Amino acid sequence: MMDNNTKVLVLDIDGTLTNSRKEISKATNEALQRIMEMGHKVILASGRPTPGMRRYEKELNLCEKGGYLLSYNGARIIDCKTNEVVYQQLLPLHMIDGLYDFAKESGCGVITYLNGEVISAFEPDEYVQLEARINGLPIRVVEQFKEFVDFDINKCLLTAPAEKAPGFEKELQEKYKEFASVYRSEPFFIEVMPKNVDKAASLEHMLEKLGISVEQVICCGDGFNDISMIRFAGVGVAMGNAQEAVKEAADYICPTNDEDGLVDVINRFILQH
């Protein structure tokens, strides 16, 4: 069991932990190091694949400090100290054929991940290239995507221009409602996740395992896929740069990711308590 005074700070990465240049600022890193030294916990919670989170795990020294990576929007949780998978949910492989066909007909990109690579069914569009760049992962185009994907997958990602993505999102939600959770993490990214997987559901499993009450948890984010954990948390924080729907779900709106918003959160909700 964890001490009742211990806080758990759960941070989305892009647009929350990192600034517009995808970097953790010096002030933010120092504030996080300070609270971890005091015994508080930091969990990174992202739609990114696990390999795309390792850079920030290293920068924050989470292996030594005992943090966690909640990747693929919560479909996998890794203990940074032991590298053990403490929780995982998988997509049913029978969905791959349908997702590929849908993407081909709709002109979407479709990818998954394997061994630190982005596996793409088609020549990568600008959004697939962005996903690879954000995560620092190479793209591997496989012609026989349906046959190739025969391994455990935590997530597929479809890509489409922002004006078309909402329509595709609705179609996929309807088509796969029995098997998967489908939602946008960015206006042009459509995440296809195992059913009932979101950041909040995975955090709940995690807290149970650690013996932590939800009142001790502060969740910070800026995107649509952060809404579940912001609503779930003892304190839900939207970044000043967050989407409007995220701000509406939050208890508190902090300064933006380019104004060291997390330093404000740490001072207000951890150091002053």
Structure description:
The structure is a single chain. With 273 residues, this protein is an alpha/beta fold. It has 2 domains: 8-89 and 197-271, HAD superfamily/HAD-like (Rossmann fold); 95-194, Hypothetical Protein, Haloacid Dehalogenase-like Hydrolase, Chain: A, domain 2. It contains 12 helices and 14 strands. It has helices at residues 13-17, 26-37, 54-59, 62-65, 95-106, 126-135, 145-148, 165-175, 199-210, 227-232, 244-249, 261-271; strands at 8-11, 41-45, 68-71, 76-79, 84-88, 109-114, 117-120, 139-141, 156-159, 180-186, 189-194, 217-221, 235-238, 252-253. The strands form 2 sheets. An 8-stranded mixed beta sheet has the order 5-4-3-2-1-12-13-14, with helices on both faces. Helix 2 (26-37) packs parallel to helix 12 (261-271). The two termini are 20 Å apart. The mean pLDDT is 95.
Give keywords:
single chain; 273 residues; Hypothetical Protein, Haloacid Dehalogenase-like Hydrolase, Chain: A, domain 2; alpha/beta; 23% strand; Rossmann fold
TL;DR?
By secondary structure, the chain is of the alpha/beta class.
**What is the CA-atom radius of gyration, in angstroms?**
18 Å
Major sheet: size, sense and barrel closure?
Answer: 8 strands, mixed
Please identify the top-level CATH class of the largest domain.
Alpha Beta
Strand content: 15-25%
Q: What would the CATH topology of the largest domain be? A: Rossmann fold
Low-confidence stretches: none
As for the number of domains, it is 2
Estimated helix fraction: 25-40%
Task: Estimate the global geometry from the Cα principal axes.
Answer: globular
Order of helices and strands: EHHEHHEEEHEEHEHEHEEHEHEHEH
Tell me the distance between the termini. 20 Å
Number of E-type strands? 14
Q: Can you tell me the CATH architecture of the largest domain?
A: 3-Layer(aba) Sandwich
